[in-house]
Give the backbone structure.
Amino acid sequence: MSNSVISVISRFLEEYTTKTSNKLKVVDAYLFYILLTGALQFLYCLLVGTFPFNSFLAGFILCVGAFILGVCLRIQINPDNKGDFLSISQERAFADFLLAHTVLHLVVINFIG
Amino acid sequence: MIPNVSFTQRCVKSIAHVSWLASFPAGSSSVFCLVLLTVALGAQALTPSHHLSLSDVDRLKGLLSQPFTDLASAYYSIVGLSKLGASVADENDACQFLKAQLDPMSVDSLFFAAEASQAIADCEVSIFNETRDILLAAVSEDSTVTQIFRAVSALSSLGLPLASQEVVAALVARIAKEDNVLAITTALQTATRLSQQAELGGILEEIEDLAARLDDLGGVYLQFEEGLEATALFVTAAYTLSDHADTEPPLKEDQVIQLVNSVFSKKSWDSRSEAFSVACAAAALSSNRFHVPVIVSTQGPATVSHSQPILHLLVTDILSNPLASANLLVESAQAVASKSVVLSQAPFSLRNGIFELNFMASQPASGYYQFTVAVTGDSRLVANQVELKVKVSTEVAVTNMDLSVVDKDQSIGTKTSRVDYPFKAKGSFTADSHQNFAMNFQLVDANTGVELTPHQTFVRFHNQKTGQEVVFVAEPDSKNLYKFELDTAERKSEFDSMSGTYVLHLIVGDATLENPILWNVADVVLKFLDEEAPAAIQSKTLYMPKPDIQHLFREPEKKPPTVVSNTFTALVLSPFLLLLILWFKLGANISNFSLSPSSVLFHVGHACMLGLMYVYWTHLNMFQTLKYLAIIGSLTFLAGNRMLAQKAAHSKIFRSTIKHVSGT
């Protein structure tokens, strides 16, 4: 059982490092950063308490939102998915990403208190 | 004054009704109510609520006696005072004044001087030949009614002849042109100076027409909207003319009373002419041949008792002059409480101008009685049925006062002691929580021995030490025996459970008692169970300021120590370093950064937007942020659009170049 899990993981890692383009790896690194930030915020909330609750929510939702937007960007600029996004060029995907982020930041900053 | 309490109450009610009705839209319900109202009012004869008392008449004479400076005020004063049966201070002086001030060319001047001189004995105003011509010339259709009146009055006062029929014709013509109240009243006054053979019928009819123009206020007052003076002058003119023409004026009894109320309700007058008009009206109403309103009033309060058994009534006219031939009769005297008739058809006897009746001779019980009296003897009398409320008062005596302390389970015999008024009981009475303190007594009329039930029978306990006072009501049973019982245990809350010596008072009072009683009967020692006794200070601190309430503000929530939050802030920011390291390792670089203006602008704009987010967090509100965001955002968008388009075009060329190169 564990043997197959380890072999799956190693296979995955090998494929990942060879097959994915650099651009996608950049985005992946960004996603990983967002994930870490959100996890650390959650850890603080668990350990110390929810005061101030609105700030915690703001920060956490920003991380979640940014992660989702990053994932959307990654899907849209992946050349393997080109068939699904014929009308959306890479620059357009990036522009959408920026616009959505602006709105997300505006809302979160309003809520952070 | 007339103690017409019931009538006044009805007036107030009817005024309230009228104002209530005024708020109704016209409808059958309001008509019905109006009918009901008139029926209710008509059921009770109207009596005057205002007249001139002797002090009012003096005040009126005082106002008229003020020194005069011109002919008009001289006229008002001299003639007004003569109507009231008085005269000016110095008649000779007045006469000289009239002669000096006379202007023989002016109709008004002649009128004032002539009329005033008529009122003074041995005062003759000299006339010239032209006087008659001037006065006759004023009598025509072209002069005003006032001018005609003054000319006609001057002519008749000076004894000069005049043609009555011409005057009548002129008056009729003028009335048609000047249709106001004052003009018609003046025309009526003019007609009183004409010969009785003249055709006065048409002018007499004007009285009825004018009376129809009077305003009815609440069924109590009848007056012209022009005011008091116009109403008083109308009354004078109507009665003077009716006397002159020997025809009864077309005014109903109720209307006469309402006119009396209007004219004599004002007791201080603004001007000499107003005082003059009131004096003339008073004289007309007290001595005309048809209607004389009569006033029945009591001398002092309307109370009789054993010490004062006689009821005194005054019967006067509106000038408070006693009526020469009048007889007073009690039609019925009815007790208010029991509605039984005590007296019927009993005459008053006249002594020194005052009507007397010994009411106590009919041995009435104490209380209030409704009298209906009638004035007879003169067919001219108006409002001669009057309602009065008379009080019969008496003295009360407390008898058979027995005080006792009764055991609750009644195993020990009661100890009763009798106390006589006004002495105090010899020993004190002790009652603790197992006993009741009881008091029995009777209240009787001192003169007749009949049992009484006055309004106020109180038993008062007063603690001398603490100043506490507790009052109870003693109630009579069916046999009119008063009983009071104090259950010590039950009533301890009223005493605040303070044991001690209480002084006992009996208080008896009533409107019909001449001797209210405050009697210190005994001392009572009350013992309450001590464990329930609160501090005596309680009653004292009831009205002292209470302790201050401090406002507790909301406690701020507990925050974690700064060290912890600082550590975690650093921890949360650390993945950013990790990101930079990863990007570096992946080979992300900015080598392809083109320095075109649009890309520079885009990056600057984007940085500005992030900066704006920070500023929003610290300083701005949403509206300001949106404003700035719109500006910066649109610039960034345009720049970004350009940049990305350029990039797209550039990468397309790049890719096609690569393909081309690899293809070849």
Observations:
- Residues 22-48 of chain A form the longest helix (27 residues).
